[in-house]
């Protein structure tokens, strides 16, 4: 069969942004040209192929997008599109059961899939010499998958998807909100009237015949787009695509799905008492238009204008004036056949949602009367430009965008038109769509409140119906995997073995320059000119570690306050100045440092650094802003108090570090410690602990080192200080391995955290420890993931790793498992961890070595990844060539070395187990795990007084 090129388009796309921004009191036009070249053609069987060449890194991204999402499902058979995404990672005739995941990991690649209302995408990024293997594997899924389906595989994957639903919906505060919205916004049977994950009852009833029907209808080449982006030879790509995909027969023609916008003939109000939430939440939703409707771009802009920045009408009324919530959101969401516009907020404790709704309408009235300025619109547009370049910084980002635009706009280059239309939106357009779709229109509102606080819901609300699956001990039976026998499908080529890797993979870490200012501030620099962008960070050692133990959360509050204006700029003026440059500046406090980060177009770097200088040296210290920031922090702490993952983390750290250690508490602090903090405490922290002798500047981007060094002269005035670091002793609660339990009534999932304090972050064995952990829990190819998810179906994911702290780096293994296999999951974790060191073989070491060495090609692509390399060097006192030195150690590392590392830093006899789950059904089952009787912990007890039950 010859390839027939139905259409050939070699497009050299150019996009000119004409953006107006107010600088220096006048207007200046800024133009940026973006070019993206690609080659698109269509095989005779209907498969559309898009190729983009990018030789900047020795890697390639492959994406296959099938035009089938939850909107193509039938009532009674919902969730199939998402479920099918899972199934395709299990098996295919020639690649073999479990080998897709294994092969990508062995090749040093990354992969995933995603399903939404309108499509399903599968993607991989691998070293470029593995392109043919990826095409072999993806084509095997497209043409040689369905015969491998077994009853065991079907049932096992049902449990995985159930875990995902419980973890993301049933066991999560406000998790049912999307279901309530969709089922009441759209009429029964509408393709958007169910959520993507679907009904668990529908899923449980699915049969092998159902799966085959779905595959045969939707997974043909004529319903797919294949994108290949990266370091490739275009002619070779065409040969390989024809070789692996050209023989597939097209399926029946797919009918076009027409827009079906929602229609509300009246305003609808629903409420839900959420047992996993402790703050009232309001969301109001209006029907709008489908994707690429002429009004969709103006609606997108409307969402940003209403809430983007301190100047926006809704923020001013709700957050600043009425102080009802820490923030407010508004956004338009246009999908393939319908769209919605949402406004909402998670309020402060005890706020009546009727007052919040009234404030929203007051903010909208102010928006109507006061409008917004050209400068506001220009700020949003230039921010889009910066965001666009950041999104195009990886070959995966390009592949994904090309696939989606080709599928839903019929043209992979529609990104140009998309951005043009956004840039061409006017103030008149925005007001027009506001008046058409929002003002005076019917809406749907959801009031989610804590149990027992029904008096906070909108008046006239109807109780919402939500579906939660009952957790019954022993309900799910995992059938024995007997495999499936089938006669292999004939192929015109030999698909029985993986094609060899092509050529020799070679790459070098980027060149790193380093210097130091006279005041001690270190400077690290990498030149990267693939995009006209820069990214940088100024990291100051200290962070939470320098907090007063009675006022933990000081550093975390300080990071917020530094962004609340300067001595010369109000918070609004600072935000406007950053926005008009299309830049991003943020301050973040962690356990051991505070980092000021910036990202911008290279041409705006000096102006952005001017603002960073002002933020660093001229804090505003506004008492009113401090009160707002503090109240917002307490609101966040209150939310995390009912999050099972946060509870597990907090209890785990308390037991791990022990009473008196500052890391026994979250970086944000507790309600008690944050209530103790005053504005003077922030000033005191700043004056004592901000010193250039503890600071490092990390720069990556399209400016050379002399230019960057010259820009840093402004920091010469920063005087060094003697900063006193406290000493803390790690006092893990008990000796030996043991288990702690936190009761989370009616939990649908149990959260497991397992680990011990291993070493300090500058330990020369840290890299070797990460190597030793790789096979255990580094990703989807690891033992934990394979056994707990792929083989048992207990969880959506299970992982392990080392967190790098200078003061006590923990080794941690973790998962969220379905409640009725809590005991089985603990037993399996213990079995794997107990035997991991004993079973680590020379073959394991060889496979680990190959995979890690190959995966290093993924480390140098994005600006953020390169800044991370520089931050590792400065934070953990690593040599400039640590990557190459780590590689050299890896190449010489033996299985005996790995077993020694495992015994020393992952010793199973010293591991602590923390379980957060439903006490009435799970606690007694954990009595005989070999870890002793569970020690019951009250997470609200700040002193962690442990009581045995």
UniProtKB/TrEMBL annotation:
<feature type="signal peptide">
    <location>
        <begin position="1"/>
        <end position="25"/>
    </location>
</feature>
<feature type="domain" description="Peptidase M16 N-terminal">
    <location>
        <begin position="49"/>
        <end position="169"/>
    </location>
</feature>
<dbReference type="GO" id="GO:0006508">
    <property type="term" value="P:proteolysis"/>
</dbReference>
<keyword id="KW-0645">Protease</keyword>
<keyword id="KW-0732">Signal</keyword>
<keyword id="KW-0482">Metalloprotease</keyword>
<dbReference type="Pfam" id="PF00675">
    <property type="entry name" value="Peptidase_M16"/>
</dbReference>
<feature type="domain" description="Peptidase M16 C-terminal">
    <location>
        <begin position="206"/>
        <end position="381"/>
    </location>
</feature>
<dbReference type="InterPro" id="IPR050626">
    <property type="entry name" value="Peptidase_M16"/>
</dbReference>
<dbReference type="GO" id="GO:0046872">
    <property type="term" value="F:metal ion binding"/>
</dbReference>
<protein>
    <submittedName>
        <fullName>Peptidase M16</fullName>
    </submittedName>
</protein>
<dbReference type="InterPro" id="IPR007863">
    <property type="entry name" value="Peptidase_M16_C"/>
</dbReference>
<feature type="domain" description="Peptidase M16 N-terminal">
    <location>
        <begin position="532"/>
        <end position="649"/>
    </location>
</feature>
<dbReference type="InterPro" id="IPR011765">
    <property type="entry name" value="Pept_M16_N"/>
</dbReference>
<keyword id="KW-0378">Hydrolase</keyword>
<dbReference type="InterPro" id="IPR011249">
    <property type="entry name" value="Metalloenz_LuxS/M16"/>
</dbReference>
<feature type="domain" description="Peptidase M16 C-terminal">
    <location>
        <begin position="676"/>
        <end position="850"/>
    </location>
</feature>
<dbReference type="GO" id="GO:0008237">
    <property type="term" value="F:metallopeptidase activity"/>
</dbReference>
<comment type="similarity">
    <text>Belongs to the peptidase M16 family.</text>
</comment>
<keyword id="KW-0862">Zinc</keyword>
<dbReference type="Pfam" id="PF05193">
    <property type="entry name" value="Peptidase_M16_C"/>
</dbReference>
